[in-house]
Amino acid sequence: MERQAKQYVENFMAQVIARNPNEPEFHQAVREVAESLAPYIVADPALQQLKILERIAEPERVIIFRVPWLNDRGEIEINRGFRVQMNSALGPYKGGIRFHASVNLSIMKFLAFEQTFKNSLTTLPMGGGKGGSDFNPKGRSDNEVMKFCQSFITELYRHIGQDTDVPAGDIGVGGREIGYMFGQYKRLRDEFTGTFTGKGLGWGGSLLRPEATGYGLCYFTEQMLATRGESFEGKTVCVSGSGNVAQHAAEKAMRLGAKVVTLSDSSGYIYDPEGFNEEKIQYVKLLKNVYRGRIKEYTEKYPTAQYFAGERPWGVKCDIALPCATQNELNGQEAQMLVDNGCFCVAEGANMPSTPEAIEVFLTNKLLYAPGKASNAGGVATSGLEMSQNSMRIKWTAEEVDEKLHSIMQNIHEVCTKYGTEEDGYVNYVKGANIGGFMKVAEAMMAQGCV
Ligand code: NDP
């Protein structure tokens, strides 16, 4: 059976690579899932005959479009917009929009593919999608960001809707950008509906949506730690990134009793040996979200911290690592460094931050290791809660949302242990998340026929 499963993966991946050349991130994400699922698929003739995984790996629809706009100097700039509508077996397409210079079709497809399994794990009725543009918002005025968002939506609006496809934020897209996109969407459609999530609190947004990915990550990590009788209390934690996910992961880990010592951006990382406190975290939020500064500036305000230009934080000694920046930001060598320094738990806030070599190191050394599609699902889960509140035209309190988020993360953890526990008792969360996420999508696709 093992040989058959390996052969299935190789044949399947050969097709995926031939059909989607030059898309390394997409191949990486698909291979990881295929390796987890292969033993199930080779044992189940229906899954093979109905080509469920083959269909899941083919987006239902990909929209690529021109985004022309006028910058503050009156010059025309041209970007490329994407929306990958990956899978609608469980509900309307749902997934964030990313604005970053690196955005291309491969990155959009890997994110949309991952999103399909993640959304399934939340148990909420959401299909998988992802979108974005190679527009780089750094250093742009508010006016330029607004002009860009308006042009982006002037094309995208015809492909999305509250029952069709519901975008949210991701890298480079926060409350400001969602506001501009929602405004243009509302103007073109002449309707006020919950087509975007991550909206402002006064106009349809859910309490706790900005915090949800980072908080949910910590709730999931708490569950993992509890399987070994551990908790955040007294642990040293390294976080990468300093955006939405990193800020709230650091905040919650600190409130749960951990000493969080690092944050980073694409230019380098800061190490604060004293750990962050409430005041320092509030300053990071101000620095990044309002001043739109760089993490280096933290050391000007708190000189006991050190800045390491051009480096990532994985050489810092810690018990728990929470990668919250971007894909492939933690390689095999860095994973080994973490293990050698005594780190025993890695939970991903970002999507696919660990390379396959890093994952191999974590699994071989039997670390508590959670892939993003399980541990960062709190963001999209709370987006799902925002959609429900919009449809019902009600607003839940922060406590109500937090309770629901907590129980969703607990359920995801249960699903991971159900499908991922190995003979020696080790929980392989990669396997657990991939199989758990796949089952529901596969059952729905089988019931819905060849579509
Ligand atoms: P933000 O834009 O708020 O922050 C991104 C952070 O990551 C910044 O600190 C940024 O630094 C850093 N970063 C981005 N690209 C790189 C890079 N190539 N190398 C090193 N650092 C980089 O995004 P989010 O916090 O929303 O997203 C972070 C991750 O979490 C992404 O992988 C996203 O897909 C994932 N995620 C986000 C969710 C959400 O609700 N927002 C939900 C689930 C997952 P710099 O400023 O230098 O670019």
Describe this structure in words.
With 451 residues, this protein is α/β, with parallel strands linked by helices. The protein folds into 3 domains: 2-56, no CATH class; 61-192, Leucine Dehydrogenase, chain A, domain 1 (Rossmann fold), CATH 3.40.50; 210-370, Rossmann fold (3-Layer(aba) Sandwich), CATH 3.40.50.720. It has helices at 2-19, 24-42, 45-49, 52-56, 105-121, 142-156, 175-189, 209-226, 244-255, 278-290, 298-301, 332-340, 356-364, 372-375, 378-392, 398-420, 429-448, and strands spanning 61-70, 76-87, 93-99, 128-133, 165-168, 236-240, 259-265, 268-271, 306-309, 320-323, 345-347, 368-370. The strands form 2 sheets. It has a 7-stranded mixed sheet with strand order 9-8-7-6-10-11-12, with helices on both faces. α2 packs across α17 (429-448). The chain is globular, with a radius of gyration of 21 Å. The mean pLDDT is 97. It binds NADPH dihydro-nicotinamide-adenine-dinucleotide phosphate. NADPH dihydro-nicotinamide-adenine-dinucleotide phosphate is lined by residues 169-172, 213, 241-246, 265-267, 324-326, 329, 349-351, 376, 379.
